[in-house]
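Hi W., the adenosine monophosphate complex you wanted:
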Amino acid sequence: MNELPRVVRTITALRQFVQASRAEGKTIGLVPTMGALHHGHLSLITEISKHVDLPIVSIFVNPTQFGEGEDFETYPREEQADLEKLAETDTVLVYAPDAREMYPPGDSTTVSVGGITGRLEGTARPGHFDGVATVVSKLLLQCQPDAAIFGEKDYQQLAVIRQFVRDLTVPVDILGGPIIRETDGLAASSRNAYLSEAGRKVAGQLNVILARLVAEVAAGSSVKHAEQTATDTLLAAGFHAVDYVAVVDPATLEPVTVVNRSARVLTVARIEGVRLLDNMAIEVPR
Ligand code: AMP
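Structure:
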């Protein structure tokens, strides 16, 4: 096994590392995560390594992006296993602050993004994107990387981050990484581990049903009809609830009723109390 990457827990130590690296002419990339790392996270490190010299991974289970009754307390925390996985990657440093470093006593600033947060996950999880935008702003200011990468798995989150980085002219390149899937097509997620064997089997249907919707819409089916069919099929497959199946503009995330060129379908379906997110591109042949 390779040597474990160095871990720093303070902003001061992070900045020292970044400044010393810059003095040597190196570029820095940041991969923000909440830990419980899987091959989806690791793919982001591979991807950002194509763009920067030194990838830094942050691990922080951010309390402000969890709502009441969500899984903040039970969210898997497995730092040692994470470090062992990171040892097999190009990661040069792990930044793992505690909550007091990130939110010291008296902290009272929230970054709140309008527009794009007013639907889908923004409606399903009130306050969630404030928590995400605030913590990602902090991470970007603490590290000051040349580039940061986020997965398309959380497609709306990536759009929200692009929005505030543009609005606040944060000097960083935001990159998106493709969704990494398990062998049955289920998007890799730290929360998949919550599922029973039976639940995990049903979960594998989500991407199949979504791919069917994509094919139908690309072939000219009505968007409304395809969304309803996918919802009904998910419920019939054993999902307990469908928060949304929405065909949207890939940039603005506004609902679209007619797909002329490209669109994106975003969905959240629930099984065994777990919200499973997925999304896919819809390309209409000319
Ligand atoms: P999380 O630890 O869940 O906050 O995720 C950290 C980063 O990894 C986010 O940018 C996610 O979008 C990304 N990510 C999570 N799962 C996947 C996946 N299956 N494929 C690609 N990126 C992912």
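The chain has a mean pLDDT of 97.

W.
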